[in-house]
Design a protein that fits this description.
94 residues; alpha+beta; uncharacterized conserved protein from methanopyrus kandleri fold like; five-stranded mixed beta sheet
Length: 94
């Protein structure tokens, strides 16, 4: 997980272990899970939940990370994208 702070926004970027630097492709969609964007520290589920509670924006990749956000009611299960078989979700608080 990595936290990005800019202009009052608190973006939480997180991916499941093993997805770092992986390129996901599905048709015309191509997404690279850049270590520099998603990875700063390895955290447990409780820490991820805590950080997501404070987030204004989140970008999540992987079954475990996305499941936490869905369980917290931050992401609608129907809005989760599957890219190359890997769940991807974004969240923004307005």
């Amino acid at each position: 997980m990595r936290i990005h702070r800019r202009q009052g926004e608190h973006l939480v970027a997180a991916c499941d272990g093993g997805l770092e630097d992986r390129v996901l492709r599905d048709g015309k969609i191509k997404m690279t899970v850049h270590r520099s964007f998603y990875c700063a520290e390895e955290v447990d589920e409780d820490t991820l939940r805590n950080r997501l509670e404070m987030a204004t924006v989140a970008n999540l990749v992987g079954e475990r990370c996305v499941a936490v956000a869905v369980d917290m009611g931050l992401v609608d299960k129907e809005c989760v994208l599957m890219i190359d078989g890997v769940p991807h979700a974004q969240m923004a608080r307005l």
